[in-house]
Amino acid sequence: MVPISGGVGCGVAACEANLNVCCPATLAVKKQGKVVGCKSACLAAKTDRYCCTGQFANPKSCKPTVFANLFKSICPELIARLLMILQVLKLAGLLAIS
């Protein structure tokens, strides 16, 4: 991670790897025939299972997808940073997750 000027200990939540090359077709976001992004399983499927809602709204029943595990193994710093941001938002009352 690269520090952002002006903030002590702040960093950029980024990943150097291009995950678009291994994005499954069902999750691919294309522009002019080229993969430019990769949706989450939640965004693509819109089901409780993949969005960790309803009966899947707890760590025991909500399991990461194969692609989520791949992403986490390739970009662990990004995942850690995003989880920290989610926790801060939750503590501030700006995000309702369990």
TrEMBL record:
Pfam families: Thaumatin. InterPro entries: Osmotin/thaumatin-like_sf, Thaumatin. Coiled coil: none annotated. This is Thaumatin. The lineage of its organism: Eukaryota, Viridiplantae, Streptophyta, Embryophyta, Tracheophyta. It comes from Corchorus capsularis (Jute).
